[in-house]
Specification:
By secondary structure, the protein is mostly helical. It is 61% helix and 0% strand. It has one domain.
Length: 76
């Protein structure tokens, strides 16, 4: 049975693959993350710009972090 991918990792992948989600994230990261279904702990990681922890989660899921750009977690 395949292991379920971490929801935060799914979000990072989705940000890389869907321009509309990326645009929503850049406009309002908290609202975009909440709409995606992230829990408050994961949203805090994003809002705190804790890229190191996010990268570790991506790598723990067996995904090369070079393949999934960790999107800037703040608005430009």
């Amino acid at each position: 049975m395949a292991e379920k991918i971490d929801k935060l990792v799914q979000y990072m992948i989705a940000l890389n693959e869907h321009a509309d989600l990326l645009a929503k994230h850049q406009q309002d990261p908290q609202a975009a993350a909440e709409a995606f279904g992230l829990d408050k702990h994961d949203i805090k990681l994003i809002l705190d710009e804790n890229d190191d922890k996010i990268i570790k989660r991506v790598e723990k899921a067996g995904i090369d972090s070079a393949d999934v750009k960790v999107i800037a977690t703040h608005t430009p």
